[in-house]
Amino acid sequence: QLRRRGFRCLHGVDGSAGMLERARSSGLYEELRLCVLGREPLPAPAEHYDAVTVVGALGEGQVPSTVLPELLRVTKPGGLLCLTTRSNPSNLCYKAELEAALGQLEQSGAWQKLLAQGVEYWERATTEEESTQGTGYISGVVYIYQKCPVPHLEEG
């Protein structure tokens, strides 16, 4: 879908060498790097990417919400960030923490929220307790932010 929308040079990171091999076999990525998000800096210079996505990793026991400034660091001014998280019961504390961090960055002027949309059937539930209203699925949320441009400083 990203390629269909004009994104041509896709880079990926993952904390698992096995997942990187799986991604490599898809033939979609120009570059794949081993990186544990939230524990080490992303292997990219500042303001390098037009868009940054994190799908399926922002959750309890996975990537901490403290990674947000690092995601912003590698995004170009005006660039997009697409982030997702689950809305299942075991992830609600993390989701609240994530949304507080998202809001703080918006209030600071680092980025602007373009979308926060719930997705009812995000992924299959592995237990009945995690299922949204007995559907067999977990719901989730997609957030899209745009990094604010660096303010122009007047001379003089």
Note the run of SSEs as H and E. Answer: EHEEHEHEE
Q: Low-confidence spans: pLDDT under 50, at least 5 residues? A: none
Strand arrangement in the largest pleated sheet:
3-4-6-5
- Give the amount of beta strand, in percent: 25-35%
Outline type = globular
Mean pLDDT, nearest integer? Answer: 92
Structural class: alpha/beta
CATH topology of the largest domain: Rossmann fold
Give the name of the CATH architecture of the largest domain: 3-Layer(aba) Sandwich
Number of helices: 3
- Superfamily (CATH H level) name of the largest domain: Vaccinia Virus protein VP39
Radius of gyration: 17 Å
Q: What gap, in angstroms, lies between the N and C termini?
A: 47 Å
State the helical fraction. Answer: 10-25%
Number of strands: 6
Protein name: MET27 protein
GO molecular function, one term: S-adenosylmethionine-dependent methyltransferase activity
Domain Methyltransferase type: 3-82
Pfam families: Methyltransf_11
Chain-wise SSE layout:
Blueprint: E1 11-14, H1 17-26, E2 31-34, E3 49-54, H2 68-73, E4 75-86, H3 92-107, E5 111-124, E6 137-147
Parallel strand pairs: 1-2, 3-4
Antiparallel strand pairs: 4-6, 5-6
Structure notes:
- It contains three helices and six strands, in the order E-H-E-E-H-E-H-E-E.
- It is an alpha/beta fold and 156 residues long.
- The protein folds into two domains: 1-34, no CATH class; 46-147, Rossmann fold.
- Strands 3-4-6-5 form a four-stranded mixed β-sheet.
- It is globular and about 45 Å long.
- The mean pLDDT is 92.
